Automatic annotation (TrEMBL):
Pathway: Glycan biosynthesis; glycogen biosynthesis. GO terms for molecular function: ATP binding; kinase activity. It comes from the Bacteria. Belongs to the aminoglycoside phosphotransferase family. Keywords: ATP-binding, Carbohydrate metabolism, Glycogen biosynthesis, Glycogen metabolism, Kinase, Nucleotide-binding, Transferase. This is Maltokinase. It comes from Actinomadura coerulea. Residues 145-389 form the Aminoglycoside phosphotransferase domain.
Length: 478
């Protein structure tokens, strides 16, 4: 039912850059080929699993796609159509992103439940997991770099869009933490892999490539980003009593939706997860020379990102100073597995406390960079950046607030971020983590490193958000 490969490739090359999860929006696609195509369901509709090899400049990335094909495309699927009607008169089919079609995604649940295989695809379930197959899927609308499908209130299936060689970190870490008894991660129920050496360049490394992860869906949970934004909105709307001094009353605790107690609990939960990671994977100490090399890498990344995103250049001097400061004071540093991309969208508040999600590391980095051991304060710095993002998101994202209230809200944003950053650090130290206040040089360097990454990430993935890290850098480096 699929069209000739040439037509399909042309349509995909036009469609891909418009997808939220496509990580190469800062440059053209030079070549797109189909690495593997596996039919998962025959007939009308049909379901095909594709790995796309996408070359941009001298790098080739691999993206996975569930491609649906139907003779008649129902209205509910028109928004995810790829290209126009295709094929010859006898086999005309409409193609679309099948992640949005519950009639087709149920094939994944069936295959996971049965431990099936199809071509180079292997479906696995975790020991003892009994997977229901009667649930219809709905794609999540969260701001995310992958695509997650909710199966009823029970399961969440994350389809990794850009594929990395080897076992996916999210799978590896979640399995290790759950096996170690850490209750702060959702249970892993199953996963899908691409076998190596079956024609897919994504699998050429000799190890299976993780394509998807099925976990327990914590349906009563609310992510930290939504909670924080609600709190900021409330704080912005909080009115100063008549006759009160607007500037003197910047006590964010006065607003109804104060987040500080949650931020403090989140800090403590983070320290607990770091301990569990250390128990599961161990801790090692790197010598001062490696810390200096790390500071040099941070600076090199800054230089590269300034070239790609000139808006970063005005902050370069202050950022370099922080990296030099780190190098000058370098001493031996304990390092371990960490979360790697820790922010408010990665934590979920459930009735039993904070749960930590997505140990995949930063999607804009290479697999070996993501796997590298780091000091746990790198995650703390990531979360501190997230408080900055949350505080400034409503102001910076165009049209969210009237421009005349800008300066007043800037002051409020600053107060909100400061209050919640302090609470998070307090909770982290009280929970047994290294005290951020005693490591200000390290934290500042990590924060700036993250901000540089964010500038690059936003330019490549969400150009409309680029102003958020740039504006917050203007504040942090002022
Ligand atoms: N097990 C889960 N239970 C409930 N919600 C989840 C779960 N896993 C992820 N989510 C929701 O999905 C969002 C995106 O998940 P995440 O794993 O961070 O995807 P991505 O790597 O694509 O950003 C999270 O912010 C959270 O709201
Ligand atoms: O969640 P992912 O693993 O896909 O992480 C990537 O995307 C994040 C955005 O979805 C991005 O996070 C940045 O934006 C967040 C708000 O949307 C903010 O809370 C974070 O602090 C900020 O870094 C993350 O950097 C990127 O790797």
């Amino acid at each position: 039912m699929l069209p000739p490969e040439r037509d399909l490739v042309r349509d995909l090359a036009e469609w891909l850059p418009r997808q939220r999860w496509f990580g190469g929006k800062d440059g053209p696609i030079h070549d797109l080929t189909i690495g593997t195509a596996t039919e998962l369901l025959h007939g009308d509709p049909s379901l095909h699993h594709l790995v796309l090899d996408v070359r941009q400049d001298d790098t080739t990335d691999h993206y996975q796609l569930l491609l649906g094909a139907r003779r008649d495309l129902p209205d509910r699927l028109r928004h995810v159509e790829i290209g126009g009607p295709c094929g010859d008169r006898s086999a005309k089919a409409r193609l679309y992103d099948a992640a949005h079609d519950p009639d087709l995604t149920r094939v994944l649940l069936d295959a996971l439940a049965n431990g099936a295989s199809a071509g180079p695809l292997r479906f696995h379930h975790a020991d003892g997991a009994r997977i229901r197959t009667d649930l219809a899927s709905l794609p999540m609308t969260a701001e995310q770099s992958n695509t997650s499908l909710l199966f009823g209130d029970e399961y969440i299936c994350k389809l990794f869009r850009r594929l990395s060689p080897g076992v996916n970190l999210d799978l590896e870490v979640n399995l290790a933490l759950s096996r170690g008894g850490c209750a702060r991660v959702p249970a892993v129920l199953g996963w899908i892999e691409l076998e190596p050496g079956r024609g897919a360049r994504a699998g050429e490394g000799g190890e299976p490539v993780t394509l998807a992860l099925l976990s327990d869906y914590l349906h009563t949970g609310v992510d930290g980003w939504s909670l924080a934004i609600a709190s900021v909105r409330d704080w912005f709307a909080h009115t100063t009593p008549p006759g009160g001094d607007e500037w003197a009353e910047l006590d964010a605790s006065a607003a109804g939706g104060d987040f500080a107690a949650e931020a403090e609990r989140l800090g403590a939960a983070t320290a607990e997860v770091h301990r569990a990671l250390a128990d599961a994977f161990g801790v090692t100490v790197v010598p001062a020379g490696e810390v200096r090399a790390m500071a040099a890498r941070m600076n090199a990344e800054l230089t590269g990102t300034c070239r790609a995103v000139p808006g970063l250049a005005p902050h370069a001097k202050a950022l370099t100073e922080a990296f030099l400061d780190l190098a000058a004071r370098a001493g031996p540093l304990p390092v371990q597995r960490v979360h790697g991309d820790y922010h408010l969208g990665q934590v979920l508040r459930t009735e039993s406390g904070w749960t930590v999600l997505d140990f995949e590391g930063e999607p804009a980095r290479t697999q070996s960079e993501r796997r590298a051991l780091a000091h746990p304060l790198r995650d703390v710095a990531g979360m501190l950046r997230s408080f900055e993002y949350a505080a400034r998101f409503l102001i910076t994202r165009a049209g969210a607030v009237p421009s005349e209230s800008g300066p007043r809200l800037e002051t409020r944003a600053h107060a909100w971020a400061a209050r919640n950053r302090a609470a998070f650090c307090r909770g982290y130290a009280a929970g047994g983590g290294p005290d951020p206040a005693a490591h200000s040089v390290l934290i500042r360097a990590f924060e700036f490193e993250k901000a540089v990454y964010e500038v690059r990430y936003e330019a490549q993935n969400r150009p409309a958000w680029l102003a958020v890290p740039l504006k917050s850098l203007a504040h942090l480096t002022a």
